Amino acid sequence: MATYLIKRFFAMIVTLWLIITLTFFLMHALPGSPFNDERNTSEAVQKNLIAHFNLDQPVSVQYIEYLKSIVQFDFGPSIKKSSQTVNDLLGRGFPVSFELGMVTLVVAILSGILLGVLAALKHNGVIDYLAMTIAVLGISVPNFVLATLLIQQVAVNWELLPVATWKSWRHMVLPTLALATGPMAIIARLTRSSMLEVLTQDYILTAKAKGLTPFKIVFKHALKNALLPVVTVLGALAAGILTGTFVIEKIFAIPGMGKYFVDSINNRDYPVIMGTTIFYSALLIFLLFLVDVAYGILDPRIKLHKKEGR
Amino acid sequence: MEAPKQQDTSYTQPNILDEWFVPKKANKDDAEAVVRPSVSYWKDAWHRLLKNKLAMLGLVCLVLLVLMAAFGPIIAPDSAKTTVLQNQNQPPSFEHWFGTDELGRDVFTRTWEGARISLFVGVMAALIDFIIGVTYGGIAGYKGGRTDHYMMRFVEILYGLPYLLVVILISVVLEPGLFSIIIALSITGWVGMARMVRGQVLQIKNYEFVLASQTFGTKTSRIIRKNLLPNTMGPIIVQMTLTVPSAIFAEAFLSFLGIGIQPPYASWGSMANDALPVILSGDWWRLFFPAFFISLTMFSFNVLGDGLQDALDPKLRR
To answer: Which CATH fold topology does A89-298 show?
Structure first.
């Protein structure tokens, strides 16, 4: 276990380093300068700006400097918003995005599992077809489409809930719904198929023969084993929710990290693009690592330290 | 032959004559002959797919979508770029089936122009994934050993990169446009295909027919092409069918963020993005049509992919 963890940890560092390098050189390969915009700044001001952001140094020196500052969790200043650093933006945006992401994840997991279990218990019944219809729709309808449709119907036509910003729980309902439907659909499908498989196992028959209540059979005996496949996709789901926050925060005008990221793309604010990309990647890679470890702990049949091979 | 009379209360033995039964002349050559034409793997899979109603629905929808993408802009009254200022923001009518946008452009035409772009991006991304992924995975799986080890380490690192983030990053760097999107989508997209093909090849290369081929001195490239790949075609096709909707989603996502297809060209994602400011004023048709057709396309590819998976992989069937 320990050797596996160390190996995975180093693989994580290598991936992260690759991402930092990739982002850095991609951003520096771009033609033009971020200061070439419609405002006519004098040459002296331009020179000062370039010197201020170290852009007069050779690329290799800049790269080393950037790596050094990243290691110290300093993502540098924003070029377009002069008084702010990328760290400021992350510090302000991350808590909001984290809240949205976490609430979404919890809602998606709980409702997905519930839907999947109900569908499996009433296999080929009305609830099954209903649940699977919801699941197929959830996979087919992109989150930004769902979000705009929700705004149009619930917020504009029916005037039930507010559309924009992030203040009370009522502001959270629509974004969460828009973001959670896709992951929920995936979890529901997975739970259903693995529940159907587990319910035919002998130990479920034993549990029934012992006269346990259906509730206990489902939630104590069946679900525990049926959930393993769900754990494997959690990493991918988290990635989906994370990238989903870009569009959802844009649509609902939520002041989170995703909104800053999209703004920085549209403004070509390179340090912010680099900083947020690296931060997001680090977050995702760490999440994938956690999921792997959790899977190893939950399923004793998987031996993490065994040499990989299939 | 007469049926025994049922009216009788006592059952009487029907009159069975011995000469009705003639022993068949045994013929050694005929005994082993196959009477019916053999059902090939593909035919068998096709029959299974035909029985899957949802997958067939997806297939029919896709055929219709492709036909409309091909002929929709032709039968439409205006070209996608024609702006008629008198016709701004018209709701759907007999003249403009899907209404018009704020520049007076016909939404029906733009929807099918968008369909061309979305389908093209999806299919191209799947094709490039196929070419790179199958070559890479095939070589890694067949060579095995150290080559495989290093090739797969590289793939693992790429696999760890968050897909949409890389796509966004590449799209920011490249000039926005159709080919930049396709490049951005395929730059790490082939990794999943390579992993899958490698796993399959690792299994199949140990079968006897491959050994037989090797003893004949067949060249490696021929073994991969003729012996290994045809046997992995099922999972490859499934993977490609599922790549298309995710590429279409990614393109719509990029265009929605404003770094995908640029005006005057339309894509479903950019049309949805353009519709965002006007839905508050009740111009529902601007959003509804692109949104509906993205969803329909994703739905069709997903259910078809699921159906193909069940049809092509009998081992997985329950």
So the answer is: MetI-like fold (1.10.3720)
